Amino acid sequence: GESVGLHLPTLSVQEGDNSIINCAYSNSASDYFIWYKQESGKGPQFIIDIRSNMDKRQGQRVTVLLNKTVKHLSLQIAATQPGDSAVYFCAENSDGAGNMLTFGGGTRLMVKP
Amino acid sequence: AAGVIQSPRHLIKEKRETATLKCYPIPRHDTVYWYQQGPGQDPQFLISFYEKMQSDKGSIPDRFSAQQFSDYHSELNMSSLELGDSALYFCASSLAGVNTEAFFGQGTRLTVV
User: Fold this and answer.
1) What is the Cα gyration radius of chain B?
2) pLDDT in tens for each of the 113 residues of chain B?
3) How far apart are CA B77 and CA B22, in angstroms?
4) Chain A interface disruption, residue of B21, B26, B41, B86, most A CBs within 10 A
5) Any chain B CB within 8 A of the CB of A1?
């Protein structure tokens, strides 16, 4: 498969530890945010989303936190597993009428067994 | 479950040639998006279509054009290819509406030599 994100920031964690990936978004008018996981050679895969009227949303092993004051998103992954190794992107929808996404810089998560 | 299908998966073209990328959305999805992802870069929105009409336009070069057909599949036509067009091209599809989840295909790796 192809390698995506050759020069991305990297977070290295031990299997079983919790991971926190951060993202700063650009548009204060954005009202919808999504975290995507991208494995090598594959398209972005939806993980979790959050709307601007919330500051926290939980899924299975994942939690997204939204701080609109400082335009910051974080993705927390509990009990990180080797299968979580991938590049993670945050994306914002700021066009209000559709789903045109603006992706933020990705972070490569590497999980050590 | 059926996913977004893109073809071809890999394409090698010479400078100044043309290329056509195809995208078959998830059944019943009426909205299609095209993204370009350069090496180590975030996906960048190019263009989207809803019900065969262009709905949003991003950073798509004038050398590129796209359309959505009556069966909702979409094609991205790229002419006068340049070395800088080498990238992963992703298609995503969704149901119409604001902030509906977009599902990405596996992408087409275009290499211009």
Assistant:
1) 13
2) 679 999 999 999 999 999 999 999 999 999 999 999 998 888 999 999 999 999 889 989 999 999 999 999 999 999 999 999 999 999 999 988 777 788 999 999 999 99
3) 9
4) B41
5) no
